[in-house]
Structures are given as structure tokens and as C-alpha cells.
Specification:
Helices cover 34% and strands 19% of the residues. The chain is of the alpha/beta class. It folds into 2 domains: 158 residues, Rossmann fold (3-Layer(aba) Sandwich), CATH 3.40.50; 161 residues, Glycogen Phosphorylase B (Rossmann fold, 3-Layer(aba) Sandwich). The protein has a 7-stranded parallel β-sheet, with helices on both faces. Strands 10-9-8-11-12-13 form a 6-stranded parallel β-sheet, sandwiched between helices. α1 packs across α2 and α6 runs antiparallel to α11. The radius of gyration is 20 Å and the shape is globular. 44% of the residues are buried.
Length: 326
């Protein structure tokens, strides 16, 4: 089998979604391909362990040189490492996931030896790669026009869904019992605590919030859960995905968990990590009318009537005000 090299980064600043996606893809491909996975992320081993139960076979992991820099700014350095590794492994495909700014000639020496595929990367010159994969709602028409439609793959078939979500979706689902909150692995802006505080103050619902080991506010969230009987914290897979599947509705920062809620048919209020509504979120909301409500449309948000008991409209306004102060 011809080797394939997958790459992604993830840390407390840029989130872990890209890394989770590539580890999941590696596990899916392992049954039919010789797969290698490379990353400089300090969370690489933990994510590989978490997704191991769903892997279709073994794959080899390669730790790239660690750095304290933002991984997206290390395009030239990462390109050099990945090129050398791809050549050493005789990889016929190199897939890099994330917004690293690769130079125009970054992978020139791989031409004729390996195809270069970028995932969710709209900042690299199209001449640097052979194919661009854009998850469903990242397919900006202007980007597709610039790259050329023949070099772009997008749509539901190209959108990663966590294997634990696929398992949960296959099970019968009764009426939801809780409000699910997920603001990303690191949650640098402390949105988890803000969302929980608002829900506890304005509803009688039980709240289940994701709080993993990378969450920068984990200690304070654990202390709150210890004294608040209506609050529970979950971490890892499949606990997080099972909690989402059992929820009445979800409040999530835009990212993989938002896609998971959609895949499970869970009503969703989606919030940006940094308070900035961009084209990706607008396309995400437009793609799932009636199921997703954005914090961008506070004044005119059409909140489904069945959500009124949980105060979703007030929640949107409160979080939008809080985000504006970040």
C-alpha cells in the first residue's frame, strides 16, 4: 500500500479541532492505507489515545519539532519538515489540515512524487497544492473562484464527524433532558463559565458542560460544579458526544462540536470564539435553517417557539454583550 502522510496542529490558542479531525481521518483510513500522522502539537498523544477505540487499524505517529509560535505562522518551517518526512516515507499523498501560511513554492520538490492536499486552508497560494478540501460551511464562493472549482472539494461528504457521534446517531434518541454547553478545548475567553452562569440564573434546566484537560479555566469550573447540583462537567469521548446526544438543545462555539450537534439533529445556538461573526458562521447558519441560531442576529433571531422555556433569545443577547467585551 502506498503511504499517505497526514498533518495537523492544535493548541490552546488555535483549538484542537484540526488535530481531532486528522486523527479521526487517520483512524478511518488505517484499514486500507499505510497511514502516517505528523504534528508538533503537545496534545498529539492525548488525542490519538482518545480516538484509538474507533481506529480501523494502526497508524504511525511522528512528532514534529515543537515550537511556542502560533502554528499557522510557521508555514515555511512546517513545509520543510513535512516535505522531508514525505520524501523519507515515500508518501504518495500529503494532507495538511489548518491555516498554516505555506509559501508558494513550499512543496515544489514533491511534484511528481506526491499529491499535496490542504484542508481548511484559504491563506496559501493555490499553486502550492493540488487539491483544497473545505468543510461544508467554509466554502466561500470567492475562495472557490480564486482557487478554481476543479481544485476544490466541499460539501457534507467532506465534513468530518467524530466517530462517537456516528455511533450516537445510530441509536434511538428520546427527548432531551439537559442543556449542553461546549466552548472548545481551551476556551481562552472563558465563554463556558459565562454561558453556565447565564443558564443557571435564567432557567431551571440542568446543564452539562464540556471541560477537558486543556480548558484554561478548568479549576474554577470544577469548583462551580462541586457546589452547583444542576451543573455537570464531561470530558473526552464518548462522554461528551453522549451528553450532546441526550440534550434538549446545545450552546456551542463554532467548530467541530457545532457540526456534531447538526449531525445529531440537536437545536443549536452557535457563538463565535472571539465575538466575530464571519462568513463561515453565516454559511453554517444558512445551511441548517430552523436548527441553528447565531448570536449575530440578536435583534431578529427567529428562535423556535419550543426553545422559549430555556430563554434562548435572552441567552443570545447576554452572550453577545459579553463577547463584545472580550
Amino acid at each position: 500500500m502506498a503511504p499517505i502522510l497526514l498533518h495537523a496542529e492544535g493548541d490552546t490558542r488555535t483549538g484542537l479541532g484540526h488535530l481531532v479531525r486528522m486523527v479521526g481521518v487517520a483512524g478511518d483510513l488505517a484499514a486500507s492505507r499505510k497511514v502516517h500522522l505528523a504534528s508538533a502539537s503537545p496534545h498529539l498523544a492525548a488525542v490519538v489515545r482518545e480516538l484509538a477505540p474507533w481506529s480501523s487499524g494502526p497508524f504511525e505517529v511522528h512528532a514534529l519539532a515543537p515550537s511556542l509560535e502560533d502554528p499557522w505562522s510557521r508555514g515555511p518551517e512546517l513545509a520543510e519538515e513535512l516535505t522531508g518526512l514525505a520524501r523519507a516515507l515515500a508518501a504518495t499523498v500529503l494532507v495538511s489540515d489548518g491555516k498554516a501560511t505555506y509559501p508558494k513554492e513550499a512543496f515544489a520538490s514533491l511534484r511528481g512524487h506526491a499529491r499535496v492536499v490542504l484542508v481548511d486552508n484559504v491563506v496559501t497560494d493555490p499553486s502550492a497544492y493540488d487539491l483544497l478540501v473545505l468543510p461544508t460551511c467554509h466554502a466561500d464562493p470567492a475562495v472557490i473562484a480564486r482557487v478554481g472549482a476543479e481544485k476544490v472539494r466541499t460539501g457534507a461528504d467532506w465534513t468530518f464527524v467524530h466517530p462517537a457521534v456516528r455511533a450516537a446517531a445510530a441509536r434511538p434518541r428520546g427527548p432531551g433532558q439537559v442543556v449542553f454547553v461546549s466552548m472548545g478545548g481551551a476556551d481562552p475567553n472563558g465563554l463556558t463559565g459565562r454561558a453556565i452562569a447565564h443558564l443557571l440564573a435564567t432557567t431551571t434546566e440542568r446543564v452539562v458542560a464540556v471541560c477537558g484537560p486543556a480548558n484554561l479555566h478548568r479549576a474554577s469550573l470544577e469548583a462551580l460544579a462541586a457546589r452547583e447540583p444542576r451543573l455537570s462537567l464531561v470530558s473526552g469521548s464518548p462522554a461528551s458526544q453522549d451528553a450532546l446526544a441526550a440534550s434538549a438543545w446545545a450552546l456551542c462555539a463554532f467548530g467541530i462540536t457545532a457540526y456534531e450537534a447538526v449531525a445529531l439533529g440537536i437545536p443549536l445556538v452557535v457563538v463565535p470564539h472571539d465575538g466575530v461573526i464571519d462568513g463561515d458562521i453565516e454559511r453554517f447558519v444558512a445551511a441548517f435553517p430552523g436548527q441553528v441560531t447565531p448570536s449575530a442576529t440578536v435583534e431578529g433571531a427567529a428562535v423556535p417557539s419550543e426553545w422559549s422555556s430555556v430563554g434562548a433569545g435572552a441567552l443570545i443577547g447576554a452572550l453577545s454583550s459579553a463577547l463584545a467585551q472580550v
